[in-house]
Amino acid sequence: MRCSLPPHKEPLGFRLYSDYETHYHNFHTNRCIECRKNFPTDHLLSIHIEECHDPLARVAREKGEHTYSCFVEGCDRKCMTPQKRRLHLIDKHMYPKNFFFAVTKDGIDGKRSLLIETRRRRSSAGSQPQAKELRRRANTLEKEAVPSDNKSQSTLPSTTAPNGIVESEKPADTEMADLTGAMSALQFVPPSIRFGRGRAGFSKR
């Protein structure tokens, strides 16, 4: 048994009548005679004809009327745009988001499923070793920087005394404390001068 119906360019052979019947139902029962596109159900074929080949529906669409029918048979809902019909099918009829909603426009020729395969993004596995290497280098640089800082802080500049002995410079706070002690040890008022109720002046020797 052979099938010579369009859109086949060459006749297709079938061994069993059941195979031919299945083929005819899938590829020729719901085919549009205008554009030769095939559709899975008669209801979707009628929606296709209304949306793509009906001049009255085109005029009504230009006037702003709701002309996009629901895919579910028995639902009388009509939407203004295909996008709103898609939301209606997802919210009210639990259609999957990856459903081929353009089926009423493009048909099912060459398709094995009405679900669109979603490609997963490849994880950047190659970037993980690079990130680990960068963190390792950063930790190494930090460890090398800490001893050098401590060494620079602990080492004070030294000066050479006149007698040839190398002495390290004291911090500014230590020098100020030594200067204060030396100043307090000085006696600016001579012992011959006395203050009191008596006659001012130098004391008699």
From TrEMBL:
Biased composition (Polar residues): 149-162
PROSITE patterns: ZINC_FINGER_C2H2_1
InterPro entries attached to this UniProt entry: ZNF511, Znf_C2H2_type
SMART domains in alphabetical order: ZnF_C2H2
Residue ranges of domain C2H2-type in the record: 32-53
Region (Disordered): 119-178
Domain of life of the source: Eukaryota
PANTHER family: ZINC FINGER PROTEIN 511 (PTHR21354)
Protein name (database record): C2H2-type domain-containing protein
